[in-house]
Amino acid sequence: MKGPKGMDIKKTLIQNNTYLILLLLVIISSLLTSDFLTWMNIRNIFMQQAGPICMAIGMLFVILTGGIDLAVGSYMAIGVSMMGVLLVNNNMPTSAAVVLALLTGLVLGSVTGVLVAYANMQGFIASLAMMTVARGLSFVLTFGVPIRLPLGTIDLMVAQSARYPIFFITVGVILLFMFIQHFTTYGRIVIACGSNRNAVELAGIRVRRYITSVYALSGLLSVFAGMVVAARVSTASPNLGSGYELNAIAACAIGGASLAGGVGSVLKAMAGVMVLALIGNVMNLMSVPPYPQDIIKGGIIILAVLLQLATSKAERSV
Hints:
single chain; mainly alpha; ABC transporter involved in vitamin B12 uptake, BtuC; two-stranded antiparallel ribbon; 2 strands; about 75% helix
């Protein structure tokens, strides 16, 4: 079916199905409860999802290469644990503690990348091992006790008095990685590594370096995501991030990323995060108990991914 100026409406709808799912959820949520479209609720949704969005972007770049990173939740924990220890026990300046925590995520992610790229380990196994290591390190650093973060440090990211800088930071991260994915050689090679690794290697490109880099990037963004979450509660907990890796993978899948690699979009991954957020938010507003929420959320994730698979097949036939 052709629209104005020959535009193929069917193809356009198929290519933007993630946004249509999100729009449909917004409409349904606003009809189910009058509290959904209030400014306070919308602000809370974006505050809560700033961290998961950053994590999903890191996960997306790993998935684009055909890999998977199960350690992202544990990176959140080790990053904020390191930051908490440096701030509270060592009286380190906030900027230095933040930088060292981010470097921790970068280094641990790089180790996972080296295991995948140079030791030829499966991403699932390598990241599973690093998930255990990072979680253990976070408990060792904190002795298993959550650390109360000093006021006026990391909490300023989500402070009303500072006009919620996390909003601008998150938008900046999204725009930066959209640019990297679509307008840089690095982004194109990352996609090519997942879609046709042999061709990239035959072109003389050092694929292993790119694979290592995406895991390092995932570790870095995961620690930043952990900081955002910790800032909202002013606490660094070694239990932080449990289960977040599954939500990040689900968000990318809902956003149309192929777990086989080579297909995915930063903006659609962000939309996938928001789909999951809206599902949880509207059920909370409707006072649905937690356990039924998990069942409903799982069912909706299955339906959303099945729709993505169906529309992907339709897109290939258009």
